Amino acid sequence: MTKQDLSPAEQALRDAALEYHRSPTRGKIAIAPTKPLSNQRDLSLAYSPGVAYACLAIEEDPTLAAEYTSRGNLVGVVTNGTAVLGLGDIGPLAGKPVMEGKGCLFKKFAGIDVFDIELAEKDPEKLIEIIAALEPTLGGVNLEDIKAPECFQIERALKERMKIPVFHDDQHGTAIISGAALLNGLELVGKSLADVKLVASGAGAAAIACLDIMVSLGVRREHIYVVDSRGVIQSEREDARSGRLDASKRAYLQTTSARTLADVVRGADVFLGCSTAGVLTPEMVATMADRPVILALANPEPEIRPELARQAKPDCIVATGRSDYANQVNNVLCFPYIFRGALDCGATRITEEMKLACVREIAALAKAEVSDEVAAAYPGEEISFGPDYIIPKPFDSRLILRIAPAVAQAAVASGVATRPIEDLAAYRQSLSRFVFQTGLVMRPVFTAAKASTSQGGPARVAYAEGEDERVLRAVQVVLDEGLARPTLIGRPAVIEMRIRRAGLRLKLGQDVEVVNPEDDPRFRAYWEDYHGLMGRDGVSPETAKVALRRSNTLIGTMMLRRNDADAMLCGMVGRYDAHLEHVRSVIGLKPGVTGYAAMNALLLDDRTLFVADTFVNDEPSAQQLAEIASMAAEELRRFGLPPKVAFVSHSMFGSSTRPSAKRMRMAAELFKRMEPDIDCEGELQGDAALSETVRRDALPATTLRGEANLLLLPNLDAANILFNVLKVVGSRGVTVGPVLLGAARPVHILTPSATSRRIVNMTALAVADAAAQALRHEG
Ligand SMILES: NC(=O)C1=CN([C@@H]2O[C@H](COP(=O)(O)OP(=O)(O)OC[C@H]3O[C@@H](n4cnc5c(N)ncnc54)[C@H](OP(=O)(O)O)[C@@H]3O)[C@@H](O)[C@H]2O)C=CC1
Ligand SMILES: CC(=O)C(=O)O
Ligand SMILES: [Mg+2]
């Protein structure tokens, strides 16, 4: 493909793709150390002499390699470059961008590390020797773009010799996805697997494996016709008659007068393309049966472009391997997750049961409602089961949550799991670290919240913005995870309409309670109570009624006050301060606390940092700062983190005598008296808060060990600015909060930028808080 052959759009894509590969770093993947290596001590642990202990331990017990090395999470993507995409035998070096790409996908979608290994070797026997010798390095082998029929022999031999999963992605990854696509496509066109006539173009690695899985799903072998580069595979062919036809092709040998794809595709219900660009013409499609399913999977250019297929048969369902069309049938939907499940249960191989578990999960996922994360990844696209959505999207974060556990379970059932996963629910929860960047940090909070629901029945959580689609999506997750019993404040007709539009399953009145601000039997009790509370602040009965009708947050706070709810979330719309006013007037402060404050958590690449006070106090006094630190430290414990508090300043241990420096110093002293058991330091500069070395250089007798995880800033501007700057420069930019500190009941005021995952996280936090309060009451 020279540059001149390309259309302007293709030229633009080519230029962008080459620039993507070249800059800012060459290639697409790098290796990064996972341990600190910044001083002499680290060096003696990582390398000589310390490393020898790890070596000797593994020598004594080889299974310890999974503990002391990264092998258990390391897959080799191995090729010899003989069938790179549909580009053919372009060699191992030219195939390297594809292998690096597979490495990126393994890491991005399933957290698996990859060595891409391009081998300049075509002899199958030699390849088998080379790859088998890599067993000490690798936890799994993903064979890639090795052509048929050699690939069959190579995979078979390696599976026999190696005690780790060996998986030829082009065969089985492709087969799994196309199997799922076929199931769903045929369901939509109302045809049965046993009845369809299926024609395949290609009889190589991908095609044969796809056909094998389709047969095991129910397609009849006698209804399958296969075409390779020499025409229809039929008994009159010279290679068939002379016995030179490869066994993989012989399995699909037909007796027929058809000789070409055009002959054989006539009347076919299904076309499977795993061959090369453009071999299926619109004229051929026109001869196919009604509503055909066309899986044109050659990469990068399919056997037919979808628009051409539709010209000939407007009612066809078309899938390709490309990401720029609907229905991307590509093995990326499978290989990261099947390896995740296999590695996590210590599977020694990948069995048929494990593959079929993938097919079922992928097919089912296309019919499940779409989560907020998926909707956000594909803005403007209609994503609900139908001709343009027969298969989940690659950025569907639920793939890992569903496929990996199903694979691990199937590995146990087929007897190949050396470390069976005992608690699948906990495993599924742990996988959320790949899906939601907050997954890991939120885990203790979710565990506490779920434990509380199983003990005392689910906590009742009121959502002030009950009509907001983000809230509805979050509530669906809250219900699915059994986190809480939600109450939505909002107009039922609007909520119903938005539930339908978002394709959610939750049922008003059954799964969730609704409080209609326009008409609710509790309204009278609420406004009377509110009037009783605010009568001396100029709130007349009329004003109380109007206030309640106008503010769903006020209704939510009244629900909490009157014990109609155990926790409340608001703030998705409007100003933070306006919501806080209602909390102040109706909920009030916790006993013994003098004020409110807000804290945000930031999930950075190498740490989680909590910052306060980000939203409430303009310039807190030393006393207030100490109290805020104390309340924030209690929240950190909910995240399972021992708080390490730093009162940060422009000043370092008395280097400045300005009032703010003195205030931070005083705050630290007060806090040390209030919470003598919590590690704390102040006043100190930001770098010293995070680095023990910097701190000790200034003051050897520092009272903080390690790195601070809770930063108290001198004023609201500083806290809010620090938080927002870190959100942008921290490559992950993921936050939890704001967490409202000081309120008498669990209530949090979110911000208009809250995502539905943030709402789920804050629900868990509020439920865990409600449970802790209930325990204190009982105590
Ligand atoms: N979407 C996806 O996820 C995936 C797509 N693929 C695509 O499938 C295709 C094949 O890959 P793979 O199986 O690994 O490669 P192989 O080299 O193993 O197989 C290629 C097959 O295509 C056949 N072929 C070549 N030209 C024609 C033609 N004009 N008409 C009919 N058949 C032809 C070859 O025939 P012969 O046997 O006579 O040489 C061979 O059977 C590639 O385009 C690849 O990108 C592969 C994996 C995944
Ligand atoms: C997607 C893939 O693996 C291929 O086209 O070869
Ligand atoms: Mg491939």
TrEMBL record:
Keyword Oxidoreductase carried by entry: yes
One Pfam match: PTA_PTB
Keyword annotations: Metal-binding, Multifunctional enzyme, NADP, Oxidoreductase
Domain of life of the source: Bacteria
E.C. no: 1.1.1.40
Binding residues for NADP(+): 84-91
Entry's family note: In the N-terminal section; belongs to the malic enzymes family.
A Gene Ontology molecular function term of the record: metal ion binding
Active site: 102 (proton acceptor)
InterPro entries attached to this UniProt entry: Aminoacid_DH-like_N_sf, Malate_Decarboxylase, Malic_N_dom, Malic_N_dom_sf, Malic_NAD-bd, Malic_NAD-bd_bact_type, ME_PTA, NAD(P)-bd_dom_sf
Residues annotated as domain Malic enzyme NAD-binding: 171-412
Residues at which a divalent metal cation binds: 144-145, 170, 299
Protein known as: NADP-dependent malic enzyme
Named cofactor requirement(s): Mg(2+); Mn(2+)
Annotated Malic enzyme N-terminal domain residues: 26-159
A biological process from GO: malate metabolic process
